# Entry
Amino acid sequence: MKEKIILLVEDNCSDADLTKRAFGKSKIKNELVVLGDGKTALEYLQCTGEYAGRDKTDLPIVILLDIKLPLVDGLTVLKIIRNDIRLRRLPVVMLTSSNEESDIAQSYDNGVNGFIRKPVDTARFEEAILAFGLYWLLVNEPPPIS
# Structure
């Protein structure tokens, strides 16, 4: 059985590297696909553009999505996912450094499943990723994908 993919959409290379290290320390072995902007993330999920040949049934088990992204911002990506019949059930968790209460409200208003504020401290970030992994990969029952 193929390992389930976690999609990380993050434009900050340092944050992406920190997330990869935290996954490793948390012993999360799932394949981590890292994409740097919202447009590419949508192409990946919708199997268009450079991902036109990708298997449409090979969807991530969860998406970690930053809010402030180039080309297409995270909230717009979330809205598009929720309006796509094939993608709408995918669990999406905002992973962002945003402290704006409006970002939290808009994320939930648009159907996000969780919101994690990136802790500045590396140890706390690793704890947050461990908790994420325990819940989303072990405890949570993923939705059936249409």
Observations:
- The chain has a mean pLDDT of 91.
